[in-house]
Amino acid sequence: MATTREFKTEVQQLLNLMIHSLYSNRDIFLRELIANAADAIDKARFESLTTPELAREWQIRLSIDKDAKTLTISDNGIGMTEEEVVENIGTIAKSGTKAFLKMLEEQEDNKEPLPELIGQFGVGFYSAFMVASKVELVTKKAGSELPAVKWTSSGEGSYEIDADTRTEQGTTITLHLKDDAAQYLDSWKIGEIVRRYSDFIAYPIVLPTKKVNEDKTETVEDKVLNSQKAIWLRKSSEITEEEYRSFYGHLSHMGGDYLKAIHISAEGTSEFKALLFLPKEAPFNLLMPEIQKKGLQLYVRRVFITDECKELIPDYLRFVAGVVDSSDLPLNVSREILQENPQLRRIEKAVVSRVLSELRKMLENEREAYAGFFREFGRILKEGIHTDYANAEKLKDLVMYESMNTEPGKMITLEEYVTAMPESQKEIYYITGEKREAVASSPALEYFRAQGYDVLFMTDPIDDWIMQQMFQYKKKSFKSVDKGDFEVEGAEEMIKQAQEKFAKLLEFLKTTLGDSVSEVRFSARLTDSPCCLITEGNALSPHLERLFKAMHQ
Ligand code: ADP
Ligand code: MG
Fold first, then answer.
1. 3-class secondary-structure state, position 121
2. Average pLDDT of every residue of the chain
3. Which of 26, 56, 438, 516 sees the fewest Cβ atoms within 10 Å?
4. 229: Cβ–Cβ under 8 A, 6 or more apart, which residues?
5. Is 125 annotated as a binding residue?
6. Using a 6 Å cutoff on CB, does residue 88 contact ligand 1?
7. Where are the alpha helices (DSSP H) in 441-528?
8. Is the pLDDT of residue 291 over 50?
9. Binding of ATP: at which residues (predicted)?
């Protein structure tokens, strides 16, 4: 018996958006639905490794009915039970969609959200309502006794759920196209969209297509629209820019552009192929870990195993998108096995080492591109200094900072800093703070300026934390200029004299300031300013203090 249910408020908000305002690139609805079909087949294929009855001739079928004005997308993948349909499609349990809506609310001008964002937030299915006035979904869960389910909605307030007689596993989605979406009834147009967005999908995407025979009779034949080529197995010289870009879009869910594609072909103890991408721009949700995709896709001999395999890449490289195809792992690896697998550890090691060496190469040969990359992702990369002990030295070579001697916006590496140090300078000096303007005017810099020593400006919120592990670079220790005191030549004598001469002033300041400071003392560090505030050697820096406050700690 059919039941009608209301959409959750958030879903309805999203649907309104799909129906009324997202017109910029409607073609992507097909990419989203095909991606879902392919995901569903990936899952069924994975299950079939242990439950052979579920194996099929995997296929995604499209069909067009010009009279009924419908476009259908059908797969023989995992399917859904009624409960799953309600959970996945009627309710939004996913944080991604909530975050998406929040971002829209916060957007000041009423600009259209970028179409790339739809995929990024995992609200793919609803994009069907950009082109359809009514959507029907019929689905049967693979290997389940439960009856098939039919879900219908026009995207306005409610949806209907009913039983269906379908017996074959998989899902069929029928789009009743809006009048202004009639172009999606054109098989040529559909072919073009599939080739543009979904060419690398590993399963045939089939569209029955009319063919005029030699004797002028017409027949309908299945036509495979995509090449299904596993791009990571091909030579880089044979892959076009466009192919890279479309594969990157599929992998990253970030849209946008990539900066570098990295092919790895490893032989020996661990045999695998990988295609990794460094992104060009950070997504705005980069620092929101709950919706940030992590990990790489894992395939075993071209069979999809899992998305977001965290064991293949450390957190501090989470901006890297890519796929790893292993020749060594068994096909029926379970997720538990993945967690402690020495093969995966070896792959991860190779992946990290290669990414770091590519970054190093870029720093040496494409300075501007690297600086741009570092501005976007540097604060994530730096985490590695704290977390990846084995690669900490390599990471130190990759970090960049502005400094007292750089123009605003220009950065130097630690190596460059050390090379420029005058002989008398023994330590690497730095100052942490919120932004350049704030640290650049600190009186704590005066002494160093007078000595001809440069001071690194560390203005990332996490710099203080990173500095706890920095220790040394090229045998030089790091020293914060606003912590503790410094050895200034002749300081002792100067301070002694001052103490005698200005004993009363010191007394006066101490009693006036009372508890708001722990000490008032003379310093030899200042050249122009009368005084400066400093933090005791092992106390929290003012910046870190602010950071902890912000985190309510
Ligand atoms: P995402 O693909 O990012 O999870 P979607 O909105 O595209 O988000 O899909 C929501 C969910 O609906 C999917 O995660 C999946 O569980 C389910 N789903 C969608 N299409 C299919 C399909 N063809 N077969 C099985 N499940 C599907
Ligand atoms: Mg999807």
1. coil
2. 85
3. 516
4. 199, 200
5. yes
6. yes
7. 446-451, 463-470, 491-501, 503-513
8. no
9. 32, 36, 75, 80, 88, 94-96, 120-125, 171, 335
Query: What pLDDT digit, counting tens, does each position of 149-193 carry?
Result: 999 999 998 999 999 999 999 999 999 999 999 999 999 999 999
Q: Does 32 sit in the ligand 1 pocket, CB within 6 Å?
A: yes
Q: Could you identify the atom of ligand 1 that is nearest to the CA of residue 75?
A: 23
64 lines ligand 1 (CB under 6 A): no
Residue 442 is assigned to a ligand binding site: no
Token digits for 428?
């690497």
Is ligand 1 within 6 A of the CB of residue 36? yes
**What confidence category does residue 400 fall into, taking pLDDT thresholds of 50, 70 and 90?**
very high
Output the 3-class SS for 164-190.
Answer: ECCCCCEEEEEEEECHHHHHHHCHHHH
Nearest-CA residue for ligand 1 atom 16 is 88
Token readout for 176 is 């009743």
Predicted structure pTM score:
0.66
> Scanning the structure block, which residue is given the tokens 């073609």?
27
Q: What is the 3-state secondary structure (H, E, C) of 196-225?
A: HHHCCCCCCEEEEEEEECCCCCEEEEEEEC
**Degrees, nearest 5: CA angle 430-431-437:** 130
119 CB less than 6 Å from ligand 1?
no
271 in a known ligand binding site: no
CA distances from 307 to 27, 291, 294, 442, 527 (A): 25, 14, 9, 48, 58
Helices 9-20 & 95-106 angle (0-180, nearest 10): 60
What is the CA(407)–ligand 1 centre distance, in A?
A: 49
Which amino acid makes up residue 313? I
Burial 178-208 (b: 16+ CB within 10 A, else e): beebeebbebeebbebbeebbbbbbbbbbbe
Tens of pLDDT, residue by residue over 228-271, are 888 998 999 999 988 898 888 778 655 568 999 999 999 988 89
How far apart are alpha carbons 172 and 74 in whole angstroms?
Answer: 4
Q: What are phi and psi of 177, to 5 degrees?
A: -70, 145
Cα dihedral sign, 416-417-422-423:
negative
CA distance 101 to 113: 10
- The number of beta carbons lying within 10 Å of the beta carbon of residue 319 is 22
* Tokens of residue 153, six digits: 């909605």
